[in-house]
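Internal tracking record. Fields below are filled automatically when a chain is submitted to the structure queue. Please do not edit lines marked as system-generated. If the sequence contains nonstandard residues, flag them in the REMARKS field before resubmitting.
Queue: standard
Priority: normal
Entity type: single polypeptide chain
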Amino acid sequence: MSLDVLVVGATGQQGGAVARELLGRGHVVRALTRKPDSAAAVELAGLGAQVVPGDLAVAASIEEAAHGADAAFLLSDSFDAGTDFEVTAGIGAIDGVRRAGVGHIVYTSAASADRDTGVPHFDSKAAIERYLRENRVPHTIVAPAFFMENRFFGLRRTDDGWLLPTPMPAARALQQIAVADIAGFVRHAVEHRDDVLGERFDIAGDDLTGASAAAILEQVIGEPVRYAAISPDAPFLGPDLSAMFRYIDRVGFAADIAALRADFPDVGWHTFEEWARPQDWRHIGAKPIKAVPTA
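SYSTEM-GENERATED OUTPUT FOLLOWS
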């Protein structure tokens, strides 16, 4: 059965993946974006999405866009405007969707955000989760671990190969997930509302150390890749990301990967290697660097 789904942030990384996944399964997608004329919005329109102008920070625009939809996918972000704004905007968007009469919200949070981590952008998402629960809003919470796509931002060329710097020890395992798998899980939640209503899922597709990730990338790229553990207190990270990497090193994520694969096989889970092999790594890390401060 085709469903009508509002996708907030449809031109972003997660929202775009969710929109494409839903369109690929024959669902109607209302792609809400602040920039309906952007290249990403035009691309989604070409795939059959209904591009709708709107802003997460303006609850009235969310409400207007959501009228008549069967479900809504919501995400929130603190990195541009801060965690206080994230909570305010997220709650406002929930209220807008609820006033529109939508019967199911799928909200993307973060793995372990419900565990009092002390990580600012986890705690802000936890506040939005509490609002959903305490106000009995029909919802499902999807909480992804570390994005595999984050490796694009870290990998750098060096004089003698590649360097993979990360603010974690080389031997520390890190649960991670491909954005495509987040989209697959959201799609499953939308299609199976009654099975997941009121539930929260920490999701990940693989669990491997930084050294293992570097070894896999070396095989995939065909050139030497060296892992470098940088300090989680490196100034360029900022206090929020520093707190996140310290938490991951100290505690770590706790998704049950085996159970996820068994219970939700239609998601199409990727290991890190399965995700990495089809990627185009040629444009990554074009600016050579000679050294990274290690922890």
